[in-house]
Amino acid sequence: MGALPFEPTAVDDYYFLPDEVTFISNYPNPFNSSTTIEVRIGKAEYVNISVINILGQTVETLYNGELTEGNYRLNWNAQTTNGELSTGIYFVAIQTNTFSQLRKMVLLK
After folding, report:
1. Nearest-CA neighbor of 75 among 13, 24, 7?
2. Cβ neighbour number for residue 13 with a 10 Å cutoff
3. Of 45, 8, 27, 1, nearest to 103 (Cα)?
4. How far apart are the first and last CA of the chain?
5. How far lies 22's CA from each of 17, 42, 75, 78, in Å?
6. 76-86: per-residue pLDDT in tens?
7. CA distance 53 to 55
8. pLDDT in tens, 10-43
């Protein structure tokens, strides 16, 4: 996997974080060329965030590594290392050792 043009950025919030992962949202959704994915990590753990197409194929791994507790935002520009993606339905998948969730995203051009 090659280097990505971005890294997740922590967001400072001053409230209690539960000891779990929460997929807050992706916005805008539907989106034209980019969307922001927000995740809350309650304790340090390994996290994989990927974009999956309607056929179940991973089209882009957005993050794969350990994150400490906090809120994170990933900006994704709907491009892969192979080029721009076409209009359609995609899913963002978040997985840890104790959590797994898919959310639908709609790319409109």
Report:
1. 7
2. 10
3. 27
4. 27
5. 10, 8, 17, 22
6. 998 776 777 89
7. 5
8. 555 555 556 678 888 899 999 998 999 999 888 8
pTM for the model stands at 0.78
Look-up of token digits 């922590």:
10
Cβ density class 83-100: b for 16+ within 10 Å, e for less: eebeeeebbbbbbbeebe
Domains of the chain: 9-107 (2.60.40.1930)
Beta-strand runs (E) in 1-109: 9-11, 21-27, 35-41, 45-53, 58-67, 70-76, 79-80, 83-84, 88-95, 100-107
